[in-house]
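Final report, Chapter 2: Outcomes

The project's central promise was a pipeline that accepts a single protein chain and returns its three-dimensional structure in a standardized token representation, suitable for archiving and comparison. That pipeline is now operational. To close this chapter, we reproduce one record exactly as it appears in the project archive, with the input sequence first and the structure output second.
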Amino acid sequence: MTILGYKPSTLILWVVLALPALGMLPSLFGSDPQAFHGLLHPTGEFAARFMIIGMMASGLMLLFRGQAWPRWLMHHRRDIEVAAFAYALLHTVIYVIDRGTLDRIIDALPKTDIWTGWLAMALFVPLAVTSNDAAQRWLRSGWKTLQRLAYPAAVLVLIHWAALHNWGSWPPAAVHFAPLIALWLYRLWYWNLRSLPARPPPRQTRPSARAAHGARAAGLKPAPSTGRGYRPEAPPASAPSAPRLPRRRPLS
């Protein structure tokens, strides 16, 4: 069953992803500047949370092989990551409006918690623009290479979050990013560091007795237990025969 061309699970997921934004509407369109400024933290946190959940999908698929729920998460990863970009964009717009002037925005750029956020947002833009089937067909193999920008963007988001309030926000940042980092390490171990079981040696085969007898009769000898058939053997050299002398007729 589909509704407007979408499965009910997809529509329910969109509603869940939009619920945090619905709670922000009064402060977003209200007249209280303090309430508007207070939206900086929840918008940034939900952007990071949805980004982490989307990036955990491939690691969970590997960890829980054969389970259905990681496949569902992997199937809807694009929806979750687009929602993460939407909250990150809202976070950036609120920050720009809250700062008020371009001079104040530029003055804050040297701070670690500011320039990392701007750089992460710059990496998110091409990822969000190409999160569709048309871009995937157009870019072909380059699409997967472009999507790897999500890894440095995630590291920048972690630094951006941890550096807030003179690095006083590192505990919640570490708690949120710990599952993602653990899955990254697991994938690294699984694909590169784990010891693979040794392959058994190739099975040795011997020709049957009947085939070996027929080979000897034909002047061939069996290949030594390789199963690859027989190879010709040179016939034994015979001694040269003496020249025949003509018979002499007896005298009459």
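Archive annotation: The two ends are 123 Å apart (CA to CA).
This record, like all others produced under the grant, will remain available to the consortium after the project formally closes.
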